[in-house]
Amino acid sequence: QVQLVESGGGLVQAGDSLRLSCAASGQTTHVRAWFRQAPGKEREFVAAIDSTDGDTAYTYYADSVKGRFTISGDNALNTVVLEMNRLKPEDTAVYSCAASWGSVTYNPIGYNWWGQGTRVTVSS
Fold first, then answer.
1. What's the rounded mean pLDDT across residues 45-59?
2. Which H or E run includes 18?
3. What is the rounded radius of gyration, in angstroms, for the C-alpha atoms of the chain?
4. pLDDT of 21-46, one tens digit each?
5. Looking at residue 124, what is its pLDDT?
6. Partners of 11 in the beta sheet?
7. How far from 46 is each of 26, 30, 63, 97, 98, CA to CA, in Å?
8. Band (76; pLDDT cuts 50, 70, 90)
């Protein structure tokens, strides 16, 4: 069992920054991702981190957030942080943390456990 709890969402203006956190407990996993879902839209991949290799953490980003968002975490991924900069109204969504025993994938079906999500609203 893996439990994930997100925090850090809120209401900000375009151009502002937010830091989201995903706290994990229970079984250790080495692949962690952030997805988001806007009202009326499908869930989409945002970023992921893979710490399977103990010496190097590999990160992945959707094109829409590359250069603006940064994902990071400790070696065991007990805490994974998504730093979001230069936020845009189109970033408005519920952001969810997901964990997997497998490899990084952009498909949400590849993840075994999910948090409840934290809401991010960016006004223009």
1. 93
2. strand 18-26
3. 13
4. 999 999 999 999 999 999 999 999 99
5. 93
6. 121
7. 24, 17, 9, 10, 11
8. confident
DSSP 102: S
CB 9 within 8 A of CB 19: no
Q: What angle do CA 40, 21, 83 make, to 5 degrees?
A: 80
> Pairing mode, if any, of strands 118-123 and 10-13?
parallel
Q: Which residues of 96-120 are buried (b: 16+ CB within 10 A; e: fewer)?
A: bbbbbeeebeeebeebebbbebbeb
| Buried-state track 22-46, b at ≥16 Cβ within 10 A, e below 16 | bebeeeebbbbbbbbeeeeeebebb
Collapse the DSSP code of 56 into the 3-class scheme (helix H, G, I; strand E, B; otherwise coil) and give the result.
coil
